[in-house]
Amino acid sequence: MTSFEDGHVEEGVALSAAVPDGPEDRQVFRLAQLTLLLQVAGAESAPVRSVDRLAFYDFFSANPFVVVSGSTPRDDADRLTLRLAGFSDRQLSYASTGQRFASRLRRLQHDLSLLVAYGLVTIDNEGYGLSEEGKTIASQFISVYADSYREGARVVLGRLKRLSDRNLKRNADEWLGRSWLLIDVLDDVLEAIPGASTRADRGEPRG
Q1: What is the pTM of this model?
Q2: CB distance 118 to 5 below 8 Å
């Protein structure tokens, strides 16, 4: 059975290598988090039909307060749920959300390719989902953080899964701030994933 600790997924760390700044700088952490996200997406009937949508789901599930900043009763209820799950609305104070998103997006291409290569993620007409082995591994993630992340992902996917691609992109532009990286880096990711279509393939201009 493939695991994130068998030496194949975890990247080797040389004695002279720089110490990662945070958990998201560790490949094994990011792979596990993507696996948890796809587990929740399957349970919540939230199809992940494009890399664009996966990128937004991935980032906002790890930073859920970005999408619950309104003043409606639902916003209040979701913020309470997130605080009880251990999330903090001050977790992004040291960097802009747009910068964090661009940084995560650069790594998504490689992370997703690894999960596909190791047979943990499949691509079909419904988009990206966990294989049976991927589901087995996801079910074995039992920790305070894993439970908190699942709760955050449920809140985020519950809000975003019903949005059209156009509306999801519009909302993301507001939450993240418009950036030239948002379009061009997404196309770089799409070009590297088998079966994915870029904006050029769809006849859409880049930039």
Answers
A1: 0.73
A2: no
Q: Mean pLDDT by 10-residue block, N- to C-terminus, for the chain (207 residues)? A: 51 44 83 96 94 91 84 85 80 59 83 96 94 96 92 94 92 72 47 49 42
Q: Residue type at 94?
A: Y
Task: Provide the pLDDT for residue 91.
Answer: 57
Burial 24-38 (b: 16+ CB within 10 A, else e): eeebebbbbbbbbbb
3-state SS assignment for residue 121? strand
- 147 and 30 Cβ atoms separated by less than 8 Å: no
Query: Residues 6 or more apart from 190 whose CB is under 8 A from it?
Result: 51, 52, 196, 197, 198, 199
* Single-letter amino acid code for the residue at 110: H
Alpha-carbon gap, residue 20 to 37, rounded angstroms: 23
Cα separation of 160 and 183, whole Å?
Answer: 19
Contact 150, 43 (CB under 8 A): no
DSSP 80: H
